[in-house]
Amino acid sequence: MADIPGPAFFIGKGDDTLISFGSGQPDMPPPRQAFDILKTYSAFKYGLIQGEVSLLTELAKEYPGSRPEDFVVTNGASEAIDLVLRVIARPKGKVLLPRPYYYSYPHNVHFAGMTPVYYDLEKGKINFETFKEALEGCSAVMINSPSNPTGTVQEVETLKQIEKLCEEKGTYVISDEVYKDIIYVRENYLLHGPRVVTVNSFSKTYGMCGLRVGYVYSQNKKLIEDIIEMKTHTAMNTSTVGQMMALAALRSPKSYIAHNLETWKTRRDLMFNGMKELGLDLWSPEGAFYVLPKFKNSTQAMSDLYHTHKVITYDGAWFGAPGRLRFSYALDEQKIIEGLRRVREFLGREYASYS
Ligand SMILES: Cc1ncc(COP(=O)(O)O)c(C=O)c1O
C-alpha cells in the first residue's frame, strides 16, 4: 500500500500524539548568541550574492588554507548541492552515488540533467575497489560521511584513496559534510584538495534547519564564480538575518557542539540498544543520528506504524534501501522510549503476520 508517497508527506508534520522518528532535524535550540542578534538586527535589503563578508571571513577560519572568497553562502546544504551539480553539469555527465543514499541526491542529479550511477555500500561502508570500478566515466561523485541514512562513517584510509583517485582522474568530489560535528567513533576527516567541493550547513550542528543557511567551499575559482552567477539569477542572496544568526552561532563557544554530542551519544545508545533488544538487525551508528534496521515489506511497515501506532519512520526505499526503515533519533529520551514501546507493539501485532 503506497499511501505515503514520499518524505514530503511527513516533513513539518507533528502533534503531541505522534512519535516522529522521521525528519532529521535536531530538537536542540541554536546557541543563545544566535538569538541575541535579533534584538538589534535591522538590515533587510538585498545582501551580497556570495554571502555576508563577515560570515565568509569566519567560515575561512574553520578550514585551514581557505580564503573568504572560496565560499558561497547558500540556502542550506540543499541549495549548495543543487547549484554545484547544475554548474558542473556543463557538459552533462554521470554522477556516482553511494546506495543507500540521502533521498534527494538522485533527484538533484536528475534536475541538473545528469545521470546517477550507483555502487552499493557494504554494511554502510565504501569498498574502494567497488567504488573505483563504478567511477569509470563519471564526472563527479558524492560522498556523505557521517551518512544519512546509514549512520556510518567512512574509513580515513578509504577517504584518502578517494581523494587521490579523483584528483588523478579529474573527477569532482562533492563532500556533503552536514553531519561533520556529529561523529562518535573518531575525529572527523574532512576531504580536501583541488577537486573537492565541500558542502555544509548550519542545520544539523547548530539546530537551525528552518533558517536555511549552508555553504559551498571550493578552491576552484571558476566553480565558485559560476555558482555565484547561477545564484544571482535564481535564489539571489541567502537570508541576511539567517546569515547573521549563523555567524553568531559559529562564533559561540565550541562547548555548545561538545555538549550536544553528549546528548546525541546518549540517544544513540538508547536507540541502538533498544532496537537490538527488539531483535532488529542494524549497523552500529558511528555518526549523524540515524539507524536503518531491516524490516520485511518496509513500505507496509511504515504505513502500519504511522496509521495504527502513530509512529513516523521513513521507508528505506526512498534512500535506495528497500527492506529497511530509517529512524532518526533527533528526539528526546522519553519519546525514544515511548517510540520503541510502540514499535514493540507493532512487531507483536501487524508485523507478526507479514510474510
Ligand atoms: C545528507 C544530507 N545532506 C543535505 C541535507 C540538507 O540539509 P540543509 O538543511 O542544510 O539543506 C540533509 C538534510 O537532512 C542531509 O541529511
TrEMBL record:
Start and end residues of each Aminotransferase class I/classII large domain: 18-342
Q: Which InterPro entries match?
A: Aminotransferase_I/II_large, AspAT/PAT-like, NHTrfase_class1_PyrdxlP-BS, PyrdxlP-dep_Trfase, PyrdxlP-dep_Trfase_major
List keywords of the entry alphabetically: Aminotransferase, Pyridoxal phosphate, Transferase
Any idea which GO molecular function terms this record carries? pyridoxal phosphate binding; transaminase activity
Q: Tell me, which GO biological process terms does this entry list?
A: amino acid metabolic process
From which domain of life does this come? Bacteria
Q: Give its E.C. classification number.
A: 2.6.1.-
Q: Which cofactor does it need?
A: pyridoxal 5'-phosphate
Q: Which family does it belong to?
A: Belongs to the class-I pyridoxal-phosphate-dependent aminotransferase family.
State the name under which the record lists this protein.
Aminotransferase
Q: Which organism is it from?
A: Candidatus Kaiserbacteria bacterium RIFCSPHIGHO2_01_FULL_54_36
